[in-house]
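Saturday, quiet lab. Running sequence design on the structure tokens for the scaffold JK sent over.
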């Protein structure tokens, strides 16, 4: 009997030592989300950008982000861990630590509703509501395997962050339209983006904004415009509806779909656009077809 009591006492001491001195967080908030890991990742980044006194301190892992908040005299670290459950659902765990008052929080949490619990729940709920509002304004439908259309194109090569892509498109749409119209070049389809490099750690891309045209012997010359033959590719396809600023949500959906179906892909998406963002309108009626090339 004494041995059992001694073992239980040792176990209690070990648990207490782990809880008070080793456990890396003070509190955890959990929630489900009807979207992909990538969409949650990007939504966290765009949400924090509008909050004063916060910054991302580690984004080296795609499914884990570490964020720092300044709340008065306290600095809180939020570690977001995102787990894919299916192709279109995820589970999020947010581990919260008060960098300067962690020990006191751990002592108080079992006995009362502490300030860090209330603040953590309110902060995560703010993000949860923003995420769900965003999901209501976008729609991604996986269509399966398809082939992109071969065409000759006039294009402008561009670089920037993913969320700056729509701005680059809007400027160059006007440029390409004016130059092609002035040169009496016949268009041969809707414009599209050809991503040539995607850095998922920095959310930056290099891409060509392309206008399909009918080739002739007197194409207009311009320092920002180039010409080439675009060749068709086998790909998995999705249809995206929503603001083109966040059309990369379809990239992540295709990436998740490819992984779950063991389809080898190149992370160089092609986006074909059917609406002119300069014309405005209901964004859910904007349509783009998104292709992720299949490796040969």
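Result came back. Writing it out in full:
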């Amino acid at each position: 009997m004494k041995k059992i009591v001694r073992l239980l006492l040792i176990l209690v001491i070990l648990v207490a030592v782990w809880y008070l001195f080793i456990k890396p967080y003070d509190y955890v908030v959990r929630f489900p989300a009807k979207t992909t890991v990538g969409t949650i990742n990007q939504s966290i980044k765009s949400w924090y950008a509008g909050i004063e006194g916060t910054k991302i301190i580690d984004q080296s892992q795609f499914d884990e982000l570490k964020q720092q908040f300044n709340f008065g005299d306290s600095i809180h670290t939020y570690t977001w861990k995102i787990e894919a459950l299916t192709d279109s659902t995820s589970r999020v765990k947010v581990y919260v630590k008060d960098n300067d008052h962690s020990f006191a929080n751990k002592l108080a949490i079992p006995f009362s509703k502490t300030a860090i619990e209330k603040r953590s729940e309110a902060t995560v709920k703010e993000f949860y509501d923003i995420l769900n509002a965003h999901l209501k304004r976008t729609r991604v439908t996986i269509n399966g395997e398809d082939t992109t259309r071969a065409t000759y194109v006039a294009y402008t090569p561009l670089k920037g962050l993913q969320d700056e892509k729509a701005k680059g498109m809007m400027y160059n749409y006007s440029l390409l339209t004016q130059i092609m119209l002035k040169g009496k070049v016949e268009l041969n389809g809707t414009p599209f983006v050809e991503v040539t490099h995607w850095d998922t750690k920095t959310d930056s891309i290099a891409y060509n904004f392309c206008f399909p045209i009918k080739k002739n012997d007197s194409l207009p010359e311009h320092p920002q415009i180039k010409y080439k033959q675009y060749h068709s590719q086998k790909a998995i396809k999705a249809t995206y509806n929503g603001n083109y600023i966040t059309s990369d949500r379809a990239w992540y959906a295709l990436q998740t779909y490819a992984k779950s179906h063991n389809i080898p892909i190149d992370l160089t998406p092609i986006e074909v656009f059917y609406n002119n963002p300069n014309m405005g309108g209901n964004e859910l009626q904007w349509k783009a077809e998104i292709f992720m090339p299949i490796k040969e």
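Notes for JK: The chain has two domains: 19-136, 141-293. DSSP finds six helices and 13 strands in the chain. Ask whether to fix the surface positions before the next round.
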